[in-house]
Every structure is written in C-alpha cells, then in structure tokens.
Amino acid sequence: MNIKCQEELLRAWVQMTMCIRGNRILTDMSVNEMVICSILFRRQQEGGELLTATELGEETRLLKSQMNKILSDMERKNLIERVRSSEDKRKFYIHLKEDQIQTYLREHRRVMELVCYVARELGEEKMRTLTALVDEATGAVDRFQKEEAGGTRPEA
To answer: Where do the domains of the chain lie, and which CATH numbers do they carry?
Structure first.
C-alpha cells in the first residue's frame, strides 16, 4: 500500500476521533467511564461475577494508573461502589450502583442515536461494510501490538 493511502487513513481516523470527542455526545460521563459502565452493566444483567479493577483494566486495555483514576472519579460521581470480597479481604469488586443504571442507559441511548444517525446516512450495506472493516482493522491493531510485544514484527 502506498504512503498516500496510509496518510489518508490516518487523517480519516484522527478526524473521526476529534469529531466524536469534540461533539460531546456524552453529557454525564467520559468515554472511558461509559465503557466501564457498559462492561459492568452487561455483567450485572447477565448475572456474571463482579470484576476487580485489574480485570476491568485487562478488558479495557487501560493502564492500572488510568483505571485507578477513572474508578476514583466514578466513585466520586457515585456511579460505582467497590465491594470487598468476603473470601479475600484484599480484593475489591467494582459494582455499578443500581440507582445509577438509568444514568448509564441515558448515555447509552445518546450514543445509539449517533450510531442510528450514521447508519441512516450510510445505508445498511455501507454500515455492514464499515462494521466489518472496523472489526478487521481492530484485529490488525491487536496483531501489531502482540507482534511488537513479542519482538516478532518486522520493521516497516
């Protein structure tokens, strides 16, 4: 692939990121808080085990220091609570507070309004293509990072 094509992809990626951040789609929480609430909400709805900060960090790929700051902010906003494990007193589980689920669902609806708008603008075929391409690109990013971490990626 030629460099011009790569630069165009980078430009489009940066432009989309800036557009999403600049439009302040979320009003009551940050993007990272929304992601964490989404994970906690799904887990709680499915009756799954509660997650620790470490497990949330692994799932979101956030650094431990980032996760701790975000969780502290969420605790101050009264979105979550940390529940001490009854088996291991050193372990704390993160729980989305029941009275804050509506806050999460309101933010989720706002994001879905954006997704629905984009879907209408693009049409179903382009939306399916975009979804497949984003999934494929995500896989490529994962492989890049794994190869880089393992020292197996050839230099560009």
So the answer is: 3-122 (1.10.10.10)
